[in-house]
């Protein structure tokens, strides 16, 4: 009876062992893929935010000496965009409102761009990121 039990139970035992090995391999592969994806997405967001900050700081510098009332509204909008970017939680990967804050920054950037009457095209590609006017 013991001989037949070993044969009958072999399929179940091998199935269990195969499942455990596959599960462990899947966890390892998932972690590696998650790190790669996270690094890629983080770089993409960092590049986008960096372009917005460079844009805002450049225009702020160009408009800061102007006394025109229209320009003071533009400067306030630029200050708001710069403040939002500076408060963005770059280091906190667990921040639950990351996407919400990113969308607010994108919206403020569009508003500032509209106030400055500037058309832009932000593209992120595999070779490079660019902000063209």
TrEMBL record:
- Pfam families in the cross-refs: Yae1_N
Signal peptide (from-to)? none
Report the residue ranges that make up the Essential protein Yae1 N-terminal domain in this protein.
Answer: 18-56
Enumerate the InterPro entries for this protein.
Essential_protein_Yae1_N, LTO1_adapter
Top-level taxon: Eukaryota
Q: Family, per the entry?
A: Belongs to the LTO1 family.
PANTHER family to which the protein is assigned, alphabetical: GEO13458P1 (PTHR28532), ORAL CANCER OVEREXPRESSED 1 (PTHR28532:SF1)
- Kindly provide the name given to this protein in its UniProt entry: ORAV1 protein
Q: Give the species.
A: Platysteira castanea
Gene name per UniProt: Oraov1
């Amino acid at each position: 009876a013991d001989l037949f039990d070993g044969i009958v139970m072999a399929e179940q035992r091998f199935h269990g062992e195969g499942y455990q090995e596959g599960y462990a391999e899947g966890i390892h592969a998932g972690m590696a893929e998650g790190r790669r994806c996270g690094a890629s997405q983080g770089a993409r967001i960092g590049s986008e935010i960096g372009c917005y900050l460079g844009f805002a700081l450049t225009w702020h510098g160009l408009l800061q000496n102007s006394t025109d009332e229209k320009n003071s509204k533009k400067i306030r909008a630029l200050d708001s965009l710069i403040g939002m970017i500076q408060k963005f939680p770059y280091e906190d990967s667990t921040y639950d409102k990351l996407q919400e804050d990113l969308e607010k920054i994108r919206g403020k950037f569009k508003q500032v761009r509209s106030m400055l009457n500037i058309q832009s095209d932000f593209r992120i590609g595999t070779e490079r990121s660019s902000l063209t006017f």
